[in-house]
Design a protein that fits this description.
- The structure is a single chain.
- By secondary structure, this protein is mostly beta strands.
- It is about 10% helix and about 60% strand.
- The protein has two helices and eleven strands.
- The chain has an eleven-stranded mixed barrel.
- A hairpin with a 4-residue loop joins strand 2 and strand 3.
- It is globular.
């Protein structure tokens, strides 16, 4: 039975995937339609990412991650992000994670993220609840994350390094879908499509103008080399709001580019 026959005979419903895709397209078009009332900047970015999970036993594991984020696709720095964490698998559908992130953000684009056009360090503590489920051939992942962010700041333009760190809080929600392109579930040596959207909301007494912090949309083509290795490549859209006004107006970055992911699972569980 081929894919089309399976679809017809079993009435597989792709409405949720189609609806998510339409929502993402509408979101991008809506943001662009209001850009004339804001200060808007545009960048071409490239994010090249490693994700590694070390399973220590059935319930516990270590999460590792490094993201090499570049401006002008690859030539200039945008950000360097390192994250490590501890995973606890309540069951196959529910995962908890706590961890630490070390982030270096560099001046890039027309307007830098901070006031003085300098790179700055961020130390981050985060907590994650991740839920997954399957609907026919389509798999869904929901990730809820809360972050405590210690951002380096310069109190004077003459300083060569940050002299204080401010505590900011942020909530994140991501929905991701995956669809196999050949069979009815994702197995070894198989292509699949993936799409995701993640929204970031800042809160707490130190939040500035960017209560809406940013949104990310990705559309990916993936391939499973084995049950423990998969690679993905695709398109990334990042909309980011500045924490300050520029020329008396709200300011946004509209970043578009490529994203490459390499995902590894290292299993040290005893049989």
């Amino acid at each position: 039975m081929n894919f089309l026959e399976f679809y017809i005979k079993n009435n597989v419903k792709y409405r949720q995937v189609i609806q998510l895709s339409l929502i993402l397209i509408f979101y991008v078009l809506t943001l662009n339609s209001y850009s004339q009332h804001r200060v808007s900047t545009y960048n071409q970015i490239g994010w090249y990412n490693y994700f590694g999970t070390f399973n220590l036993c059935k319930k516990l594991g270590i999460h590792t991650e490094y993201q090499w984020r570049r401006n002008n696709i690859v030539t200039d720095w945008q950000q360097s992000l390192l994250r490590v964490g501890i995973n606890y698998n309540l069951n196959p559908r529910v995962l908890f994670r706590v961890g630490y992130g070390w982030i270096e953000t560099f001046p890039y684009g027309q307007y830098s993220i901070n006031n003085f056009g300098k790179d700055f360090t961020e130390h981050r503590i985060f907590q994650v609840i991740q839920l997954s489920h399957n609907e026919q051939m389509v798999s869904f992942l929901h990730r809820f994350m809360v972050e405590q962010r210690f951002l380096g700041k310069y109190t004077s333009p003459d300083l060569t390094q940050e002299d204080e760190f401010s505590l900011l809080h942020r909530m994140r929600y991501m929905i991701r879908t995956q669809l196999p392109l050949k069979k009815y579930s994702i197995t070894d040596k198989m292509l699949y499509l993936a799409a995701y959207d993640e929204v970031f909301i800042g809160f707490g007494k130190n939040v500035a103008m960017n209560v809406f912090d940013q949104n990310r949309i990705g559309v990916l083509l993936g391939y499973t080399l084995s049950k423990n290795i998969k690679v993905e490549a695709g398109y990334l859209n990042q909309t980011l709001q500045y924490s300050r006004q520029i020329n008396g107006k709200s300011a946004f970055q509209y970043n578009n580019g490529v994203i490459l992911n390499a995902n590894f699972i290292f299993d040290f569980c005893k049989n």
